Amino acid sequence: MEVLYIGKAPGVPGAGPLDAVMLRDDERFGLVHFRLPPGGDIREHTMPFEVVFLVLEGEGILTAGGQDITIGRNSIIPCPTGVSRAWRNEGSEDIGVLVIKLKHSTESGGDEMEIRRICDQPAAENPHGIDVRRAYESQYALSSVVTLQPGEQLIRHITPVDVFFYVLEGTGVVEVGDEKQSVSKDTVIDSPKDIPHCWYNESNGILRVLVVKVPKPTTGTRLL
Predict the structure, then answer these.
(1) What distance in Å separates the CA atoms of residue 144 and residue 133, rounded to the nearest whole number?
(2) What is the pTM of this model?
(3) CA 81 – CA 50 distance, rounded (Å)
(4) Bridge partners of 60?
(5) Residue 45: per-residue pLDDT
(6) Where are the alpha helices (DSSP H) in 67-138?
(7) Whether 141 contacts 100, CB under 8 Å
(8) Of 15, 16, 42, 151, which is least packed with CB atoms within 10 Å of its CB?
(9) In the structure, what pLDDT confidence band is assigned to residue 121 with cuts at 50, 70 and 90?
(10) What is the pLDDT of residues 143-202, one digit of tens each?
């Protein structure tokens, strides 16, 4: 089990003064976190693959495809391949954004973008009997936000693709294979495919975890 706390993550090469760290980077998938202070901005640029932005805190303006889009906490927006984008913070608080890079999605997907708030998504049926909200879905990845109330846990299970977890809120215990570890907000955990894993909320507060499966599974999860 690989565990990385955001405070120990390496900086993004070429980011200059931007507070940006690399949480995951391989040939298929990347995960970056950046923070913009009040008055900060990121100049217009493009990417050769689709990215998905998840706003973790604050409110900012994303300029994409010639549109100014105001998005706030818990909002998620896919940005298609090749669409120019820029960020700016005109507010009084920092903006924290998680960037999911889907490196196999290199075909142009047009320039239409849909903003979704995770809390507004319908609850997805699942065998664990917990609150699961779908965040993103394509052939390249499947992403959901799982919420565990105090005392709740998942059923130990095996996923046929690699899974990456990002703790959005709270403290919980993650189990991958024979390893168990307590983790808290702003921590990334890798769980390789075909390895049993599970989550437990043994705290007195809510545990929220972003789950990213790469690529989207074509077979079901196996409960143990």
Answers:
(1) 5
(2) 0.95
(3) 4
(4) 71
(5) 92
(6) none
(7) yes
(8) 16
(9) very high
(10) 999 999 999 999 999 999 999 999 999 999 999 999 999 999 999 999 999 999 999 999
Q: How far is CA 56 from CA 13, 14, 128, 172, in A?
A: 22, 23, 25, 18
Handedness of CA 141, 144, 148, 154 (dihedral sign): negative
From the list 214, 219, 207, the residue with the least C-alpha distance to 101 is 214
Type of residue found at 130: I
Pairing of strands 197-200, 171-176: antiparallel
Q: How many CB atoms lie within 10 A of CB 44?
A: 11
The backbone region for 111, taken as left when phi is positive above 0, alpha when psi lies in -120 to 50, beta otherwise, is: alpha
CATH of the domain at 139: 2.60.120.10
- State which of 117, 152, 174 marks the end of a domain: 117
pLDDT digit string (tens) for 31-79?
A: 999 999 999 999 999 999 999 999 999 999 999 888 899 999 999 999 9
User: Which pLDDT belongs to residue 66?
Assistant: 83
Domain that holds residue 75: 2-117
Q: Which of 43, 54, 68 is nearest to 164 (CA)?
A: 54
Structure tokens at 77: 């927006």
Cis peptide before 122 (omega within 30 of 0): no
Counting the structural domains of the chain, the total is: 2
Structure tokens at 97: 């954004």
Q: Say yes or no: 107 and 128 in one domain.
A: no
